[in-house]
Amino acid sequence: MLTRRVLLGGAALAALTGCGVLPSGVPPVSAPTPDPSVPGHEALQELRAQLVTAASGPLTRAQADLLGWALDVTDDQFPAVSLSAPVATAAPTPSLVPVPTPAAEATSTPAPPPTPTGLAAALETAQEAFTAQALDASTARPIVWASMAAWTVALAAQFPEASGAREPGRGVRLPAPQEPDAAAQAALDAAAATLYGLQVAAGAPGLAADETDALRGRLEFWSGLRDDLAAGITAASATPTPAPPWYAVDRPADAAAGRALAARLQAAALPVLGRALAHGPAALRPLLVTALGDVAADVPRWGGLLERWPGLPST
């Protein structure tokens, strides 16, 4: 049984409970009442309230389903940061936007309702507060808050269309321990491998012009992340290992395979970046928190899952 008390965002707790975010081999125990002054706690409570409110507004069926999924995720986020479970609330009946008939769709398809102002503001506030908790030197589990910050970025990007697939419930654990230099080098290696693979994906035959442009943007992002990680490793008085000149990546036969490759490569990099945030040099955390959100938001664009805990390993 874990007996050492730690601090998570300023709140004392004996362990993380609820969603399985626990050090390997440590059984869960009850968390005490949290400090209500922790900004991340307040932001999570407000976000939960705004998700419930938004579910009462005009929504497409896809948006209603996405909000139901998001509320389920927050059920896990509350105990993961040592907050009491959210008060059970009867699910409001969403006001669904009529789906046009095939004949009407040929002439005009209504745009989905925009993200409600209150929800958009709550997502932005939560992202800022969760990021601040992840970067707080007193936070014992920064990766948990960083993952939640990345989730808000991805959720905000998905809401208008709400067309992507969503990850079902899963058990998650904290990344396995790793030496700081090794964790940072692994993130650099993942960035280099992803960059190479996206170059291959961009060459898939049949991609639309906007998809090719989007992949060029991803190449710029991963190239910048690779260079920033290398600079950060050097600043931490370590010498980064150069990436190999090529990787064994099968060339996609068509556009669908190219999109799947772009999603798969970036999804595979998420837990590596998360492990670097959890165990790498603290100076890299701001860069990695931002990167987690960017990558988590882009994976569904290519057909990958909208993740519940971006950056945390699956069990």
User: What is the general shape?
Assistant: flat
How many separate domains make up the residues?
A: 2
Helix content: 40-55%
Radius of gyration: 20 Å
What distance lies between the first and last C-alpha atoms, to the nearest angstrom?
21 Å
- What average pLDDT do the residues reach? 85
Strand order within the widest beta sheet:
1-2
Uncertain runs: 1-33
Question: How many beta strands in the DSSP annotation?
Answer: 4
Tell me what the CATH architecture of the largest domain is: Up-down Bundle
**Strand count, sense and closure of the main sheet?**
2 strands, antiparallel
Order of helices and strands: EEHEHEHHHHHHH
**Percentage of residues in strands:** under 5%
CATH topology of the largest domain: Ferritin
CATH top level assignment of the largest domain: Mainly Alpha
Number of helices: 9
Structural class based on helices, strands and sheet pairing: mainly alpha
Oligomer: single chain
